[in-house]
Amino acid sequence: MRKSKLALTVSMSSIVLLSGCATMERHGGKIVGALSGAALGALACEGDPACIAIGLVGGLVLGDLYDDRQEKLRKLVKEKNIALQTRTLKTFNSDKDNALELSINDGGMFEVGSSDLKTRARMDLMSIATIYREKPQKILVIGHTDASGSDALNQTLSERRAEAVAKLFQDVGVPAGQIYFQGAGESQPVATNDTPDGRAGNRRVEIVEIDSEESLAAYNLQRQNDSKYLAHSNRTQSEKKKVIERVKSTPEPQKKPVPALADKPTTRPALSKKALVDFGGQPASTNIAEIREATGKTSGDKNGIKFSLFSQAVADMPAELSPCYIDAPRKTGDIQNLATGQKLDIASLDMTDYWPGLNGNVWLDTVNGHMIAFQDLRVLRDSGTPQGKPTVRVYENIQSDKTADFVAQPYIESYPGEDGLLLRAYFGANQPIECMDVVMKNGSSSAAKAGILYYADGPGLYQQNIMLQRIR
């Protein structure tokens, strides 16, 4: 029986591969939906033709909807010359493409520093909204800004803009209960923030139509861990310039002995005068090829977000991946329902499996006589999302210290790749570490693949390798 199921799946795949390019472009959603529905039917229905047909029809319905949406959007683009892009994708809780993502460049859509839509933008968005009025699924509107201004200001502004577009969809006739909005601020750039054109490209609105609230929660988790956004820094050009100047002016370190028991200082020095902890490193570099190679390419199946069969996009780890110190923490706002104002709860998602070795284990390493330990480090397997608040403890002298000299709960980001999981940790003020890039293996392992920590000493910035080991 299993052989016949496999034969049916391969046969359906052959139909897709033999379809002409024009057919795929116009009916790609229907074909992909039918393929997924029939394949699932073959695996779940023990070969029953009637049961398989039900799965085929279910896939066709969703594929038809996306084909219809994209065909109408194509016509609208030609009529009104609107700059937009679309793609279909799937979330980790689905076995088929279950979402349609639309991105609109809003560089000229809003007044500067305002959530008020310009007249032309309002008319264009109303035309787009009418396409979603018929048979609406869950609709998420995401607002984005460039890196100009403070993080808090950009977050608030992007949320207000997303809500403004969401309300416009409601005005056109999309039920408010089906509409959600979110501000992503400057956290997900698609272009450089160094040029006017790049900043305009980052000031955009995205509209995601998806099959359920559960899938919406899954989409949000995957999006936060999508490494394509690492290709561009979320800092301004002037901010990056200051960081680079700091790195270039960092002097070679003076050799300092590891403190003996009697030499342990009784008071901690101020961060601006000397390092809180001397990790014995070298001046920081912008080259993190080792980190990039250890992570490998991102994979649609492993990383969650999957491009459709007719997409030309390739999801690789960015070639110009920057060290963590050149970036800033990438935080997004909550997803809220337009009708109720309630925040989206991810508790409905079935996410009980953890990344191998990252289910609350303790990881540690000794660096220049100082021990660094990660406690309660947990990462969800399906989405690659950090969970909870892991604690990092630093012991200045492992021969004498029974309690940690520094304790922190850093903000942690994660980016899954084919070869490893990139963990990026940002520490707060008055901590001995500024940030850290660590790559864990995808399979079960007792040691990390690579790691670099960055720390301040006076005005300079230094780096040191760290190879975390799992102790339980």
The overall average pLDDT, rounded, is 80
Structural class: alpha+beta
| Total beta strands | 18
N- to C-terminal distance: 43 Å
Oligomer: single chain
Strand order within the widest beta sheet: 1-2-5-3-4-7
Weakly predicted, low-confidence segments:
1-46, 49-61, 261-273, 299-316
**What general form does the structure show?**
globular
- Percent strand equals 15-25%
Order of helices and strands: HHHEEHEHEHEHHEHHEEEEEEEEEEEE
Q: Given the structure, what is the number of helices?
A: 10
| Proportion of helical residues | 25-40%
Radius of gyration: 25 Å
Question: How can the largest sheet be summarized?
Answer: 6 strands, mixed
Structural description of this entry:
The chain has 10 helices and 18 strands. The strands form 3 sheets. It has a 6-stranded mixed β-sheet with strand order 1-2-5-3-4-7. Strands 6-17-16-15-14-13 form a 6-stranded antiparallel β-sheet, with helices on one face. Among the domains are: 1-66, no CATH class; 251-299 and 350-470, no CATH class. With 472 residues, the chain is of the alpha+beta class. The model is unreliable at 1-46, 49-61, 261-273 and 299-316 (pLDDT under 50). Helix 4 packs across helix 5 (151-172).
